[in-house]
Structures are given as structure tokens and as C-alpha cells.
Amino acid sequence: MADPSSLRVAVVGGGPGGYAAAFLAADLGMKVTLIDPEVNPGGVCLYRGCIPSKALLHAAKLIEESRQAKNWGIDFGEPKVDVARLRSWKESVVKKLTGGLGQLAKQRSVEYVQGRAAFENSNSLRVTKTKGGEESLNFDRIILATGSRPAVIPSLKIDSPRLLDSTSALDIADVPKTLLVVGGGYIGLELGSVYAALGTRVSVVEMTDGLLPGADRDLVLPLHKRLEKMFDAILLNATVASLKEEKGGVRATFEGKALKEREKVFDKVLVSVGRKPNSEIRGLEKTRVKVDSRGFIQVNKQLQTADSAIFAIGDVAGEPMLAHKATHEGRTAVEVVAGHKYSFEPNAIPAVVFTDPEVAWTGITETEARAQAKQIKVAKFPWGASGRALTLDRTDGLTKLLIDPETERVLGVGIVGPGAGELIAEGTLAIEMAALAGDLELTIHPHPTLSETVMNAAEVFYGTSTDVYRPKR
Ligand SMILES: Cc1cc2nc3c(=O)[nH]c(=O)nc-3n(C[C@H](O)[C@H](O)[C@H](O)COP(=O)(O)OP(=O)(O)OC[C@H]3O[C@@H](n4cnc5c(N)ncnc54)[C@H](O)[C@@H]3O)c2cc1C
Description:
Elements: E1 8-12, H1 16-27, E2 31-36, H2 43-48, H3 50-68, H4 83-107, E3 111-121, E4 124-129, E5 134-138, E6 141-144, E7 148-150, E8 163-164, H5 166-170, E9 178-182, H6 186-198, E10 201-205, H7 217-230, E11 233-235, E12 238-246, E13 249-256, E14 263-266, E15 268-271, E16 275-277, E17 310-312, H8 323-337, E18 351-353, E19 358-363, H9 366-371, E20 377-382, H10 387-391, E21 398-403, E22 410-417, H11 420-432, H12 437-442, H13 452-462
Parallel strand pairs: 1-2, 1-6, 2-3, 6-17, 8-15, 9-10, 9-15, 10-11
Antiparallel strand pairs: 3-4, 4-5, 7-16, 12-13, 13-14, 18-19, 19-22, 20-21, 21-22
Helix pairs in contact: 1-8, 3-4, 3-6
The structure holds flavin-adenine dinucleotide.
Flavin-adenine dinucleotide binds at residues 12-18, 35-38, 43-45, 49-50, 53, 116-117, 145-148, 166, 187, 278, 281, 314-315, 321-324, 326, 354.
């Protein structure tokens, strides 16, 4: 086994995959260089993804809740939004976090090079520095963590400040009167919710027959119902055929069945139709790294590419494109570089949509199980029977367990409702620990909490729930 302290390691990309890999490698004694174009580590997640979007969604939730409070006899009046202050608060959160990562890099003696890396060969990188100049650096191992960028539809690409992607939408340059969101995936719905809460009339166009394609329909339904009230329109089975800028807006034409309107003018248009891996790294062809047909760098369970000196992690190495998956892959790659017996084989990777209500799932979904003709039993606990949900005036939630009927092992958990993103962690732990539904049923959960609904769903599975009534057959 190589002595880690003799290893020189480069990490290309400073997102949640890259900085986690760089910091752990330094902690294990390696000499580490972290390369990223930004002034501090953070990547998409911290600068223009998870963190700024969640700061804005928190503000959006507060606005919506203040309106709902009227039902409980509390009237705050109509919220007044100072967009400039909201923007600078969001930016201060990003600055605090990324600045903190810069400090942590220094404390660990990670060499941080602000620039863009290209390959000279499998062990050598040429870095074009952001502030000018170039440098060639040699390494024993290189970890690629170059992430992803918004996908573009070439036919909808117009040169106009009215056309937004997730990055420019997060800047909230202003609050447009109307916004068309192209794509009903999680990024479009999260950002659409932010703008709707700020007062924009939002329309969403989704080409499949439901929002959040791939997610279980019973989890999406409560979100769909709430968004129907928040948004101007949700057009399903529909596509945007063209966008054309004209005086005062962008004219969008729609295609699809059962559409009331075939075209409409919007102040702004946000295209959020997925993300593309950043695998077009200059000089990559000088290595043995292989890229698949979707643009992901091919890796094995040790995150090693077809070139033994090069690893790839995070969004550039495959789905799901999520920050926590990137971090865990980064940690695995570093352990492998250090010569430890490690592999990335999670039983469950949680996914969370931070809308209101939040939608979260982990392990197998019902949709996947049905597609694979896998035998599962589904136990659902509706939040209408949860005391805590009633105290929050949010009975629109649902917690469900997907259980192996033979072994009673928990294979998947799905939750919709406020706080689902926090609650889903218990589901992931249950799956990783090979918990049985009985383990969840017998684990005492605090009352009154939404976490009880996980235990309650297990009770439903055994027919022992005292919170819902099932007539005896
Ligand atoms: C609006 C939005 C909201 C999101 N919300 C969530 C969420 O709530 N939860 C979640 O889990 N995920 C979320 N994501 C996804 C998440 O941001 C990504 O999964 C995550 O950032 C991937 O991390 P990564 O380390 O692979 O790369 P990234 O974070 O993409 O970072 C890659 C870095 O590499 C740099 N780079 C690229 N090429 C080079 C090069 N040649 N040389 C040097 N540096 C290079 C890039 O500039 C970038 O800084 C969101 C994404 C968006 C856009």
C-alpha cells in the first residue's frame, strides 16, 4: 500500500465532490492541489445551486406561511419584499460558506489554484489561472470533479436578457410580472415557487404527463394541487416550440394536446430542462478516460476511470446529479487512492425537492419497483391522521414505506409534506441498516412530530395502527 504522504493528488473542480475529496485527502496526509475557477471552493452547489436556491425558498415559504396565518387569526398584512436586500442576504450566505471553505483549505494546507485545468497527459495538468498566467503541474493521481451545467435546447436559445437559466434566475435581477418555466423538474419547480411567492405569475410547461417525472405520482399529487393554486398554469403533455423576443416580452408558442392557448407573451422565460456533465475537459483525449454517450465519465465502483491514474466523482461521473452523492463519491475515491478497500455501493441515495410541500424519497421508488415487476408491499400513512400535521395546518402530506413482502425489509421510503427533506434521513438509515418494517414500528418516536408518520406507516403495514381505522374483514 502506498504511503499517502508520498502521494501528490490534484482535484479538478471545487464543488461538494471536489472540496470534500481535497480536504479528506489532505487529512489523510496527501499533498493536495485543488483547482477551480472561483475565488473559493464551493462549485455549483454553493455558488449557484443548492445553497442560494434554499435560501430563497426559505424566504418564499415564510411569505406563503404568513399568508396562511390569516386562517389562524393572525394577519401580518401583505408581505413587502425588498428584492435588493433579499438578494444581498442570499449572497451573504453564499459568501460565508464559500469563504469558510477557503479558510478550511488553508488550514489543511491544500494548495488552492484559482483557474481552469487541462490535461497534458494522465499525470500532468496545465492550469490557466483566472488572474492570468499558466502553470504545468504533475501528480500521482487526479480526481475529476468538474460537475455539470444547465442543458440547453438549441431551438429555444435566443440572445435576450429575458431568457434565464437556473444561474441567472437565482440572481433575481427583478421580479417579473410573468414567468414561463420550461421543464417541470425539481429545479424549475423550486425556482418557479420562489418567483411565485415574490409575486410573479408563473406558468410551467412539462412535456411528460406529470410534474417531477420519475417520482411516484402519489407523492407528487399534493405538490401539484398546491402549485395549481400558486401558479397561473401548469401545462402537461406540452412543449415550447419556439421563443421569440418582441417589444415587452418573449412570445412562446406551445405544442401539445388539450391546450387552451397556443401562444403567450411572458416577461421572462426560465429554461430548466436538466443538466449536462462537464466532461469536455481540454486534453482529456490525451488520457485513457472514457466518456459515455450521455457525456458522463465512465467509472467503476472505486470511482476509477479507464485510466488508472484518474478518478471521476460527482455530476460528471453519472446520475443522480446530487451534492450528497458527489461528496460521498469524493470521499470514496480518496480512500481508494490512499490504498484502503473502499467502494461506492449505497443501498439508498435520498432525493429531495425543496418545494412546499417538500417531496423526498430514498431507496427504491414504487414506480421503479413496478417497472422491474419487483414484489413490494406499500404501506401509506396519510398526514390527515397526524396530530403534528394538524397543528401545522398541513394535512396534505403522506408517508409511505415500500416493503419486501417476504423479508419485511424496508426497500424504499417516500414522503411528501413540509420537512420531508429532513424526515427522509431516517428512511435512508433504515435501508442502509437493513431495517425491517418491525424495527420502525417498535422504535419509539417523539410525539407530536412528523417523524411519527414513519413509525405509523410501519404500523399500517402490520395492520396495528391505532391512528387510522381499517374495518376487520
Ligand atoms: C438551482 C440548483 C439547485 C440545486 N439544488 C440541489 C439540492 O438542493 N440538493 C442537491 O443535492 N443538489 C442540488 N443541485 C445539484 C448540485 O448542485 C450538484 O449535484 C452538485 O453541485 C454537484 O457537485 P460536483 O462536485 O459534482 O460539481 P459542481 O458543484 O458542479 O462543481 C464543479 C466545479 O468544477 C469547476 N470546473 C469545471 N471544469 C473545470 C476545469 N477544467 N478546471 C477547473 N475547474 C473546473 C466548475 O467551475 C465548478 O466550480 C442543484 C443544482 C442547481 C443548479
